[in-house]
Structures are given as C-alpha cells and as structure tokens.
Amino acid sequence: MTSSTATCAGLRFDRVSWLRGSNAFLNAALTSDAARILLLDRGHPLVHKSPARRKQVYFASWSDVRSTVLACVDRPEYGVFGPEPYNLRMREGSPQKVWLGSTQGLISPLLSLAFLGIEMREDGPSLPAEPGLHVPTGMPYFVLSLTARSQHRHAWTEACDVLDMRKALGSLAPQDTALVSMARSLIDWNERTRHCPSCGSKQYSALSGHKRVCGTALAKHAYPCSMLEIGGRAPPQECEAWSSLQNYTHPRTDPVVLVGVVCDDKILLARKRGWPKGLYSCIAGFVEQGESIEEATRREAMEETGLDVGHVSYQCSQPWPFPAQLMLGLLAFVKTPDAQVRLDLDNELEEAFFATKEQVKSMLCSQNDQQSHDVVRHGHPVTVPGPEALAHELLSRWAQSSHHVEVHSRL
Amino acid sequence: MTSSTATCAGLRFDRVSWLRGSNAFLNAALTSDAARILLLDRGHPLVHKSPARRKQVYFASWSDVRSTVLACVDRPEYGVFGPEPYNLRMREGSPQKVWLGSTQGLISPLLSLAFLGIEMREDGPSLPAEPGLHVPTGMPYFVLSLTARSQHRHAWTEACDVLDMRKALGSLAPQDTALVSMARSLIDWNERTRHCPSCGSKQYSALSGHKRVCGTALAKHAYPCSMLEIGGRAPPQECEAWSSLQNYTHPRTDPVVLVGVVCDDKILLARKRGWPKGLYSCIAGFVEQGESIEEATRREAMEETGLDVGHVSYQCSQPWPFPAQLMLGLLAFVKTPDAQVRLDLDNELEEAFFATKEQVKSMLCSQNDQQSHDVVRHGHPVTVPGPEALAHELLSRWAQSSHHVEVHSRL
C-alpha cells in the first residue's frame, strides 16, 4: 500500500484552488450538465439504494438541487446575492479591489455548499471563468449539505439511503471514500464555524466553502447594510476584521502523531479504557503548538508509556474525517532496551505490551481471513485496527521490515 | 542539524499535560518561588536590557506579577473565581463530575495566562497536586500576556525591552526561541479566539490556556449565572455546547508542506511577488482537508509550478509561530526530466529556476560568511532563507545528499 491509496486519501481530481474565487466559473460549473453534486446529511453521504455491501455515492445534478439552492438565494433579505448561487451585487462606490477581496466565491449564509475540484477529462466540458484563469476541461464536483434543509431531504428518499460515514470507510470504493472524507471535513468545519472568533459576529462562507470571513469586514468595505442584520446587532468595531480586510478563518487540519514504539524486535500495542475487548493499537496524540512532529512523538511516548524514545522515523500519512485530522504515522525507537512501561502519567491507557513481528503479522492477517489467531490477553483474542486505519498500515510496514533496517534506524 | 535542534523546536522541558487541569498544582506552581513567568506584549517577548546582540529572556516571579494577576481575579463581577489565579467556587448542587469537566484549569476571562511545562531537576522544588497525579520536581514555566494590560506594562520598562519576535529568532538562545515560540502561538490563539464558533457567546480559557470552552456549556452545567453576563446576552440554547459539555475548542496547529522540487540533479528555487530582491526559496502551502502530506506536496507542486511529481520523501519538520504552523519539509521528484515549469495556474510565483548542488551550497554558505557568491538572476545575487527557516535545512540536506540516494528515492 502506498500513501496515495491510504484510506480517505487518493482523490484523483484536481482541486484547482485558484478557481474557488471565480463567481463566473462557479456559477457556470454548478449549473452545467456536467456538475456532480455530492449530498451530505449531518456529515453522512447519500448513496444509491442497494442491498449490496459495496455502496455507490449518489451524485445529484443541478436540476435535482436547483430549487433547494435557489430557495436560499432568493429570500428577500438575501436579495443582495442576486439570481445565481455565487453572486453578490456590488455596493455602489466600493472600490473594485476591496470588493473582490472580500466577496470571492461568497455564498448565501443559509447555504452549505462547497466546490471540491475538477475530474479532468480531455473530452470533458469546457467551462468559462474570468479572463486569465486557467480552467481544465472535465467534470466539476460540489458538495451540498442537507443538514439544515430537512424540508428538502424527502426529495431523495426514494432513490437514496443515508450511509453512516464510519460504515462508508469499508463499503464505498476508495476513490469515493476520499471524496466523501474531504467533503465531510469541509462541510463540518463550515457548519460549526458560524461566528467570528474575534467578535462573535456572523461569518460568511467565502471561496466556495474554503474560507470564512467576518461580517464586520464585509460591512465596512463592501456589503450593503441590510446584510449586517443577519447577525442581529451592529458590527463591533473593535473586531480585528474592522481594521483588516483579510480577517479570514481557514479550515482546520489538526495533525496527530500515530506512534509505533519499537524496542529491539518488538512493537508496543496499547489499549485505552472503554475500547472493545481485545482491541489494541499504536499510541496517538495531537501535535501541540511549538513542537516538531519528532518532538510530539517523543512527548506522546513519554506521557502515555513513560518510555524515552530517541530516533523517530516518519512512515506514512492519511487524512481522517472525524472531524478533520491529519494522521502522521511514525516509528519511534526506545533508547534503553530494558526500560519499563508506566501508564500512570497521563492515565490514558489501560494496558500495553510489546508484541513480536510474528504476533503482529498474525493479528493483521486474522482480520482478512476471519480466522482465529493465537495472541490472547486476559482471555480475549487480541485484534488491531482494520485496513481503514493508519495504525494498520504502520504496523504492517514495521512487521514487513527487515531487522537490519530497524537496527540501522536506531543509530 | 537534527530535527530536535530546528529553530523554534527543541524545548527541553516536559509539558506534563496531565497537570493542566489541576487547580491545586497550578496555583501552587504559579505562586511558588520556583515559577518562571515569561511575559509577552502583543506576542513579543520581554528581554533584559542589553546592548549585546544575544538577548536574554526576562522571567518574572510571582511577586512581580501578583498584583497584575490578582487585579483580574479580584474584580467583583468575577468574584466566583475566588482568591487564587486558578479557582472557581462550586455551584451549589452541581454534580462534581460535570463541574470538574468544565472548570479544570479555568482562568478569569480577563487574564491571558498559560502553563507551559516543567524544567525537570532532581534537586528542584516539589509541588503539590491532587492525589493520583504525578508531579515531577523542577521549575514550572508560565506565560502571561501584557497585551490587554497596558497599565501594568510600565512596571517592566526599567528592566526590559520588548524584542520583536522575528528578531528573536536570531538573537535568543535556541532553547529560549523554542520557549517563546510555543508561548506566542498559545497566547495568540487564546487572544484571537474569544467567541464560540458555534453560537458567538464568550469563551473561557480552560486547562490553563490549552483549551477554550463556550460559556453556554458552563452556564448550563456549572456556572453561577452572573458569569454569563460577561457575554452581554442570554445564552443561546441552540449552541452545540448546550447539548454537549465537551464543546471545547483546541489550539490551531496548521500543517504546511515545504517542498523541494527535484529534477535530476537540480532543485527548484522560486520567488513570490513582493519578496526582497534576489530572495528565492522552496515552494510551500497549507495541507488541505482530506489530503495526506504526500498528496498536498504533489498538489502544491502542480498548482505553483505545473510540474507533475511522483515520489515524495519526508525530511524534517519545525514549528513556526507566525501564528501557529507546523512546517513539514519534503523532497518531491519530478516524473519527466524535460517537463516545463508554468507559473500561470495559481499565479503565486513571480519566477522559478532549477539550481545545481554547487549553486545551492554557495548560497547557503554566503549567508554564514557574508561573502558574495556567483549566482545572479536579473542583476541580483540570489539568496535563500537563513538558518531559522526550514527551507534552509531542506536545501542543505538535499545539497549534501549523494546522487545515489536521490536516484534511489525516485524509483
């Protein structure tokens, strides 16, 4: 398994980030026959109804979602958005530069919609944009959230099921898993980031879901005053946005180190309180501010196991959409082979032990062929996370590595 | 240079994260003679006055900051905090478990204070905490922000200068640079994250500056009602915090890929519009949601240079406190050696060219010995970022690697 086929990674389309701010492109792409619009309901994808285990994502067309989208745009209080999904009438007298800076790819505040990218095809449709912008030919992908639009949800119940996102990891094709993961993280962040962290005013989605901007910045520089009333109060002028137009918030991507602690020819397996009986994995934790990933790895090893690790070796990475983590898989080599594990520092783990390569191989295989294996702890057969988790990949890489490589890595 | 000595990394103290929620420990540590309290003014550290180029961080003691801290705690409207910096009177009838969950390490909303860690020394002071918590002996480190306390700033003007943080990177000892970097990122995040992203209510600092919690959660579960009035309005019950006590916000750590694009035996150097004349560096960009770091690397290479890269090799990482980035240094190998660079996709770069190892070595050396070197573009000698930047380390690793290693890596 290479990094590009890791679960939740491997999107084959181009994100064409430079097009996220072109209203001309976005409107043309969304309303074109080529548009493929993924639907999420509370972060879970809509799929074609099917008794088969392998599910297929349902992609709506513009005609399917037109009334849902335009119902948000057309409401009189948001009339400033104009007749298209991505649009906004220019305030009289606003300098064009300021206006463009704050309103690129802006959507009605009632709409959770994002542009994801283009699946490039030479024979695909050619879409227009502003002069000077390069637009590849192909199928444009969007995501529309139905979470706040329960009245529209019924339209799809005939054709679709809502597939739980955790189950989607094992039952969608890898390419669709990657697509839904990206869309879910982006929509989740948009729907949970409604207010400016600086002043509490309403934020608006800009760059088609890839940034958010404080209403205060818009109020001062570009917006018709009526828009402000959405926040329910006058704009607080002490907000940072009042002095800086660029008070954007950008999506969260939280790095997490997943650490295989290696001692001689064994690797540490640990379990947290409350996990299913017999389940063990590598240790993990968020990278903190002011840390390299190697330092975060050593800190987590010390905090959770009391082990002092020296050399750290990066192995693999994977996005994880619960809600928006970047998993970084590393091997960390214990300095003194006779070191004792202690779990009483941060008290996160219930138990930990060192397993051999043969034992780990047996655990990894037993998931595939459903056979029982021979590692038992406290009366329960030991299992490790399945192929959808980076821990599986990290353990697999270690188990398949040569002893020579490990010894070399420790030096 | 190993990762642990990278600029802004290499903190030698223990973050002891499990102590961030112990009011008993935090109060004892902050008010002990051993406390070392870093002061930041708008994110810039206070240092001892000195004409020397090498500056020393000024560490205040509890007696220095006592009146500043207690002025925030003692205000009548915040009387619920009680007489100590970390404290809060329990609401009558609140179940203890709920109470503890939301008020661990809580500080008065007017105070920007955070616990950083313990510099462990066997002969250091021993500090108390709740039963069951492991407390290493040593010197506890805190950071206190003076940004909103201009009336207290004068107390230090006799002894201290405010050192611009950018200059601090080159003029503080590496250990102090790492300390200030962590403190700056943490305080910056606290001071710019004042409101709940879900409902706009005031947030409070919990776990001594390492989380923030929506006032709505506190209102429902634990807080005396008077606290709510700080937000200036009744708590909105539609906030996620109303149904979930764990509506914490955690600090941002934004991963950025820094990419050395390698083609045969050359590496790409590029410059953005507006950079100082002659300055070139590696390309860089934020990791997006739903991407592995290898995918982010390939996307950035394509977006900024139009080059299709295959194999990607992680090299090194470094935190960067402007404001809270995690820099990830990678080499990326171009698939077809005769590929043409194009800069017109996202239009971020002004110019780019491939440099040889000898040229890069010359650029890296010229910064150290201040000698001129012989690479000139458009009439200006080419320079690369200094040792404080991860680009310097990445270029240096590549320039010192053997041709054999690169060829091998590309396969």
TrEMBL record, chains A, B:
Nudix hydrolase domain segment(s): 251-378
InterPro entries xrefs: NAD-cap_RNA_hydrolase_NudC (IPR050241), NADH_PPase-like_N (IPR015375), NudC-like_C (IPR049734), NUDIX_hydrolase-like_dom_sf (IPR015797), NUDIX_hydrolase_dom (IPR000086)
Catalytic reaction annotation: a 5'-end NAD(+)-phospho-ribonucleoside in mRNA + H2O = a 5'-end phospho-adenosine-phospho-ribonucleoside in mRNA + beta-nicotinamide D-ribonucleotide + 2 H(+)
GO molecular function term, any single one: NADH pyrophosphatase activity
Keyword Cytoplasm: no
GO CC terms, sorted: cytosol; peroxisome
Assigned EC number: 3.6.1.22
GO biological process, one term: NAD+ catabolic process
Gene it is expressed from: NUDT12
Family: Belongs to the Nudix hydrolase family. NudC subfamily.
Species the sequence originates in: Malassezia restricta (strain ATCC 96810 / NBRC 103918 / CBS 7877)
Cofactor: Mg(2+); Zn(2+)
Name this polypeptide is given: NAD(+) diphosphatase
Domain of life: Eukaryota
Enzyme class: hydrolase
Keywords annotated in UniProt: Hydrolase, Magnesium, Metal-binding, NAD
Pfam families registered for this protein in UniProt: NUDIX, NUDIX-like
